[in-house]
Amino acid sequence: MKQIEQINKQDMKRRRNDIIEINKLRGKENPHAISVQMDGMYNNPLYSGVGRTPFQPATQTVYTAAENETSKHNILALNIKNKLCSKHSSLDVDNDSGRLHEDCTDECSANIPMVKSIGDEYTWARECLLDLKEDAIEIEHLVTDADSSAYKAALDLHNEGINNVEPENFLDTRHLSDHVRKGAKSDKTLLKVMPATTKLKRQKLLNNFSVDLTERCNKELALAYKFYAGDFLKLK
Fold it and tell me: Which residues form the Mutator-like transposase domain (predicted)?
């Protein structure tokens, strides 16, 4: 496992250097300032425990930072957090050493205690950004979902003087599409005007309409992006 981890780190380091070289060939003023997209994945949806438990249901997360400089969108930074260990209870913490368990070795799969918030995107993103900084990479444009705190982590690193480049935040269209679809799907006024004889049929029509509306919005955005040659200021 340690060897696999080391190989992956070396591979990501190579990809980081490749991005810098690509920016140099493009004549970019600061080849070390790049555009990335960041988000986290969980072994259980965080919302699945709402109203049922005071704890977040997920015990593992993988937070990734992928570059937006090329069409390949290579992953440049990875942050894995795990509350589980096969050797001991995740609730056991040695108060003297601060380790998750006094008998566990450095190879313990748990690297955060059970009481830690698994959805702490600010911390996970900050650790990824500091990892990128070790290879002289800073964030110029950051794409996140609307409720992410990754941008705040990037902005704080700039304000603290750790990074020289001030980041700019963009919201990704996939989460925006989901927001539009769910909003239309739950709109009671739209449900009333659906041309059907029963509520069940009206709801089915509304579900189809919400999907069509989302696809239309995405198509309009793609056409506008093409028309203005990717100039986001004109798109606004």
Answer: 2-226
